[in-house]
Amino acid sequence: EIVMTQSPATLSVSPGESATLSCRASQSVSSNLAWYQQKPGQAPRVLIYGASTRATGIPARFSGSGSGTEFTLTISSLQSEDFAVYYCQQYNNWPPWTFGQGTKVEIK
Amino acid sequence: EVQLVESGGGLVQPGGSLRLSCAASGFPFSSYSMNWVRQAPGKGLEWVSYISSTSSNTIYYADSVKGRFTISRDNAKNSLYLQMSSLTAEDTAVYYCARRGMTTFDYWGQGTLVTVSS
Predict the structure, then answer these.
(1) String of b and e for B6-42 (b: at least 16 CB within 10 Å)?
(2) Over chain A, what is the mean pLDDT?
(3) Cβ(B57)–Cβ(B2) below 8 Å
(4) Whose CA, among A5, A16, B28, B69, lies 20 to 30 Å from B97?
């Protein structure tokens, strides 16, 4: 099973600033990596797949990068609606599909 | 518009059983593989089970539920199911059904809460 590790657990950011979230895989997942956003009381929604491709309707301020074992989600100019929990997920070796433990982006 | 609506959650005693349903609409349900993903209170996401499209001939389970949970689908009714038995407190979670697109889980339902407690 591939273990996904996200850092930091919590990120405090002021509106308008940028945020950089990290995700590491225990073995290579190539570019088969997705990022999800989850707000309180809501289901997750996919932001990025293929490590760097934005899903339909996702604003350009969200960008993903990386391959192999190291990945980054960058949110530029954070808006109020971006404060949420973000999960990475690998879909290279399955089952199981595995998620990171999440990074909470909170208002500083 | 793609919609996934879960139902069937509730309070169940340890050792009990429960059947979750997920009603799908807005897309050709039989053409997509489907999943159940759960989230314990205040915790992260855990994949639970997968069923392939059409003939349902490929099924997978997380080790944590293998032998206790059964996934199934009725393509004629555009519905996904999860039969859960021998439930323990560790199964307490919001259960989401999620469509597997070309790569990722591209659509999720709003979830149904399962609470296992005496």
Answers:
(1) bebbeebeeeeebebbbbbeebebeebebbbbbbeee
(2) 97
(3) no
(4) A5
**Nearest CA to B112 among B80, B88, B86, B85?**
B80
Tokens for A93, please give them: 């070796």
Q: 3-state class of B77 per DSSP?
A: helix
CB contacts < 8 Å between A and B, how many?
57
- Residue B1: how many other CB atoms lie within 10 Å: 6
Residues in chain A: 108
* pLDDT of the residue at B57: 83
B106 CB within 8 Å of a chain A CB:
yes
Place of tokens 């307490």: B92
* Residue A7 tokens, joined: 């850092």
Is pLDDT of B55 > 90? no
Looking at the DSSP bridge assignments, the partners of residue B21 are: B7, B81
Shortest CA distance to A58 belongs to which of A42, A76, A72, A41? A76
Amino acid at B86: S
Residues of A in contact with B104 (CB under 8 A): 34, 46, 49, 55, 89, 91
> Smallest CA–CA separation between A16 and chain B, in Å?
27
Read off φ and ψ for residue B12, nearest 5 degrees.
Answer: -140, 145
Say whether pLDDT at B56 is over 70: no
Alpha-carbon gap: B56 to the closest alpha carbon of chain A (Å): 16
